[in-house]
Design goal:
ten-stranded mixed sheet; 161 residues; 13% helix; mainly beta; two-stranded antiparallel ribbon
Length: 161
């Protein structure tokens, strides 16, 4: 028997739908753990009570899940000379999903133009350098945003320490 072009297109389309479904759903069943060290060097600004060198932490916050997503963990804005870094600590954990990005936000609103990069992992410590085109003091929140569905996964309000 000969298959018509229509049947071939239906088969190819079926594989495409299955592939898309897997890409959208599979992150819910898998976790990616990251364990990045805090960069050393010029970020130290002093010492704590024990004499340990401490970084220049400007603001800090706690992640909370948005919608049906869970999130916990500490996030900090750290200054490194003239550069800024967003740091997720070891206790960071968010529901995994497809197409997740880290963004700044302000006053309860995520800001799409203030993107810091793809989420490296849904668990563990990670660093995101703030691009020089973004002034981090213009924002007071850090968001985990799902671009595929245009929904928030997590939000942390940054506060003075």
């Amino acid at each position: 028997k000969r298959y018509s072009m229509k049947k071939y297109l239906i088969i190819i389309g079926g594989f495409g739908v299955v592939g898309l479904g897997y890409w959208l759903i599979s992150p819910l069943f898998f976790s990616r753990t990251v364990s990045e060290e805090l960069p050393t060097g010029e970020i130290q600004i002093g010492t704590d009570k024990t004499g340990e060198v401490v970084p220049a932490v400007l603001f800090t916050g706690q992640f909370e899940g948005k919608g049906l997503h869970n999130a916990t963990g500490t996030v900090s804005l750290i200054q490194i000379e003239e550069k800024y870094l967003i740091r997720f600590e070891d206790n960071f954990n968010v529901t995994n999903g497809p197409d997740l990005f880290v963004h700044f936000g302000k006053d309860g609103e995520y800001v799409s133009e203030a993107r810091l990069g793809n989420l490296k992992g849904n668990i563990g410590s990670q660093n995101y350098e703030v691009p020089s085109t973004i002034n981090p003091t213009d924002y007071n929140e850090v968001w985990i945003w799902c671009r595929a569905f245009s929904v928030p996964f997590a939000q942390a309000i940054l506060k003075d320490i």
